[in-house]
Amino acid sequence: MLLADGTIREYALKLASGEPTPGGGSAAALAGVIGVSLTNMVGSLTEGRAKYAEQAEFITELLERASRARDDLLDLVDEDIAVFNTMSAAYNMPKATAEDKAARTKAIQSALKACALTPYKVMDICARALELTAEAMGKTNVNVVSDLGVAALCLKAAAQSAWLNILINLNSLKDAGFVAEYREKASAILEKSLPMADAIYDATIKACGSS
């Protein structure tokens, strides 16, 4: 059974166990799920309200984009587990002969790339979800504006957590071109997303009545 289809309690107990999966990469994706689901909720609590009639088109778009991001991140909760298991299997391959060692090394390197690409997908989706959350500020139900702040914090944590999982895998890769490409791409996402998340949080603080 896919962990994303289980209960929160089941996932938490599995995460807390001595098993290597789920781990930080899967948890990063789940943090993203929570974040974008909150943005989705704010849209749902705005939809159809006369006070926000002028934003009806935007709210429809918000709900569609947030739903897609949520579903994609839910898939990545389990994809991270799958790619880690593939890497573990590669490390357990035989290494008795030169041929064995070469095949094992090739499999490990391939698996490491997959283990870096999955959290990169998490970062990319969270970045887009943060953009959507930023757009929602001032256009959605003011009674739940605090939830946009929580959404931003969760999405920020997800992006940073995914970055850590990218780094740990890039450090073991021998493909310098791949390493340079994804280090640059992921760094660019952080440079754009983290200030955006902080800005949403600051705007939420002000909207909640703090000076």
Plain-language structure description:
- It is a single chain.
- The chain has 211 residues and is mainly alpha-helical.
- The chain has one domain (23-207): Four Helix Bundle (Hemerythrin (Met), subunit A), CATH 1.20.120.680.
- The chain contains six helices and no strands.
- It has helices at residues 8-16, 24-44, 56-91, 98-136, 145-170, 176-207.
- Helix 3 (56-91) runs antiparallel to helix 4 and helix 4 (98-136) packs antiparallel against helix 5 (145-170).
- The longest helix has 39 residues, at 98-136.
- The protein is elongated, with a radius of gyration of 20 Å.
- The N and C termini lie far apart (48 Å).
- The model has no long low-confidence stretch (mean pLDDT 96).
Describe how the helices and strands are arranged:
Layout: H1 8-16, H2 24-44, H3 56-91, H4 98-136, H5 145-170, H6 176-207
Helix pairs in contact: 2-3, 2-4, 2-5, 3-4, 4-5, 4-6, 5-6
What are the main properties of this structure?
211 residues; mainly alpha; Four Helix Bundle (Hemerythrin (Met), subunit A)
Q: What structural class do you assign from the helix and strand content?
A: mainly alpha
Largest sheet: none
Average the pLDDT over all residues and give the rounded result: 96
Q: What's the shape? A: elongated
Q: How many DSSP H or I helices?
A: 6
**Are there runs of 5+ residues with pLDDT below 50, and where?**
none
Q: How many individual β-strands?
A: 0
CATH superfamily: Formiminotetrahydrofolate cyclodeaminase monomer, up-and-down helical bundle
Query: How many separate domains?
Result: 1
How much of the sequence lies in strands comes to under 5%
Q: Architecture, CATH level 2? A: Up-down Bundle
Helix percent reads: over 70%
Order of helices and strands: HHHHHH
The CATH class is identified as Mainly Alpha
